[in-house]
Design a protein that fits this description.
This protein is mostly helical. The protein is built from 16 helices and no strands. It is 76% helix and 0% strand.
């Protein structure tokens, strides 16, 4: 591939304001998460690494948030942190609180109220986005990932854009954070499940941030040249192989995170049939609703499983597929009546706040 063509690919990425293929990644990721909560009666399905859907989300989030801030800084000379936090608030908090309300009756009446006490004691942690410390037995405890991401959303912009002014420093910090978190996940793997999952999630977020810094740096052209030489089938194959490794030993999850970063790089930089597949309209439609799908999926998956009472592997897979599409349908209602109105309201709040100055463009439209 010629240097001119490589420059065009990089310029195409830098000019792009929305990446549909990344919504396709979200659609696949939420399916993985739901498969993890299927609680199959069959060993093969139980061992499937559906929990790695979190890694896809975290690498994506780290990349998108950092790219959003880098581009805002490039366009306007600085990052306005208050509008950033307002955007995050109205994208995340209203839906979360809505779904949390549904867990009150679930906790009180479900399982004869056995988990009500755990839910009540965990409520302050939910309301302060500290649910990464919620006991596993509390209903809605799977939302621990939001606690991880919210801390990243709060701390990373201050560290990288208020305290650090140079891209190289940001990249070094992101790289160091990735290496430290990746090392800790190896240490915690046999010590503490909670610490293990926390460490690998922070590592995935840091890896995404590092990728964003790389694509905004002077090394971006060299990186694009390297990515352009990789056949389009190889990045998704690398992800599949990494998932197979994780199936046998979860210590290989860092290999998965690196393969996800490779796949994202290829989707962002190289037009290909793989990008077209992930940008398929149905996957993009689902991906746009993946945040609310993530929050409500267990409210759907559990009753569908009880109603169908699957007695074979294929029946359990059918439960997963049915619950997936029901969850998508319900999430569409949330998208129409909660998510979009709250997002637009957040934009109006920002516009009013910035009425006496030039308003930043919403570079990347992402729920997470």
């Amino acid at each position: 591939m010629t240097t001119l063509r490589q420059n065009e690919l990089l310029k195409g990425f830098l000019k792009e304001r929305y990446f549909p293929a990344l919504d396709g990644i979200r659609a696949v990721s939420v399916l993985l998460v739901m498969s993890n909560h299927l609680h199959s009666n069959y060993a093969f399905l139980r061992r499937m690494p559906g929990w790695t859907g979190v890694d896809f989300f975290c690498v994506l989030s780290g990349f998108l948030i950092t790219t959003l801030l880098l581009r805002e800084e490039k366009d306007f000379g600085s990052v306005r942190l208050a509008p950033f936090y307002i955007r995050r608030f109205f994208r995340i908090v209203p839906i979360f609180l809505l779904v949390l309300l549904f867990y009150f009756p679930v906790a009180y009446f479900g399982e004869h109220g056995i988990r009500w006490a755990a839910f009540k004691s965990a409520l302050p942690l939910y309301l302060t986005f500290m649910q990464d410390f919620v006991p596993h037995e509390a209903p809605f405890s799977f939302s621990w990932t939001l606690g991880i991401e919210e801390k990243f959303y709060f701390i990373w912009p201050i560290l990288a854009f208020l305290l650090l002014k140079k891209l190289r420093g940001r990249a070094l910090v992101a790289g160091a954070f990735f290496l430290v978190s990746a090392s800790l996940y190896l240490i915690f793997e046999s010590v503490s499940d909670r610490a293990y999952f926390h460490a690998r999630s922070y590592a995935a977020l840091a890896l995404g941030a590092l990728l964003a810094c790389l694509l905004a740096s002077n090394l971006a052209q060299t990186y694009t040249r390297w990515i352009s030489r990789i056949p389009s089938f190889l990045p998704p194959l690398a992800v599949i192989l990494a998932l197979a490794l994780v199936f046998y030993d979860r210590q290989f999850v860092m290999a998965l995170d690196l393969s996800i970063a490779l796949l994202l790089s290829h989707l962002l930089l190289i037009p290909s049939s793989v990008r077209a597949w992930f940008a398929a309209p149905v996957l993009v439609w689902i991906g746009r609703r993946s945040y609310s799908m993530y929050l409500i999926h267990l409210l759907v998956l559990t009753p569908v499983r009880v109603a169908l009472h699957p007695k074979s592997v294929f029946a359990e897979l059918a439960v997963l597929v049915i619950a997936y599409f029901i969850t998508a349908g319900l999430s569409h209602l949330i998208y129409l009546f909660v998510e979009e109105p709250m997002r637009l309201f957040g934009k109006r709040v920002i516009a009013k706040r910035l009425s006496n100055s030039r308003q930043p463009v919403a570079i990347l439209d992402t729920p997470n």
